[in-house]
Amino acid sequence: MADFPFSFTIPLPGAVPSRIDNHIRRTLSSMKGQFLDHETYQAMLAEDDRVIYEVYEIQRPAVEGELLMGISIVHPGKVGNEFFMTKGHFHTVLDTAEVYYCLQGEGFMVMETPEGETCVQPLAPGNVLYVPPRWAHRSVCTSRQADLVTFFVYPGNAGHDYGTIERLGFRKLVVEGENGIEIIDNPRYAHE
What we know:
This protein is about 10% helix and about 40% strand. The protein has two helices and 13 strands. The strands form four sheets. It has a six-stranded antiparallel sheet with strand order 1-2-3-11-6-9, with no helix packed on it. A hairpin with an 8-residue loop joins strand 2 (about 50-60) and strand 3. It is globular and about 50 Å long.
């Protein structure tokens, strides 16, 4: 039997889709090694393994020609002066792209290539962001109270490579500086 077209809603605020095939909750403990201020991270973790972000997926077969989609919700907060963020990933099939549409909140998409190119783009309601093939990407919530909510779409066969980012980190960080939000070089970035 062939697949049939389908639709779903994304009610705002809240943004939990009316159709969900998979719900991922990433807590502080799942972000080990990703935040610059390790001491503050450990102190926060000892208090509460809070949810940093959630992903609601509408799954499709993991094959070329299909599109996977869903909602990413990064909650507001900081570890030290570094804003809450997603783990970030390359696609396993490196030459696949992704599109993000920001529905709510404010933040940035931190991106980089294996060759060392970097780009940090703002996210605000109504912004559409195209992440080209070969670019790792991570969402960062800089809202003080509102969640950063994005709708995403990517090829069904793209896959996720989280391991490279867990091992190396990102070259750029989004932090609260003396004059507000700053994009800085990551002093702990591990070069291969």
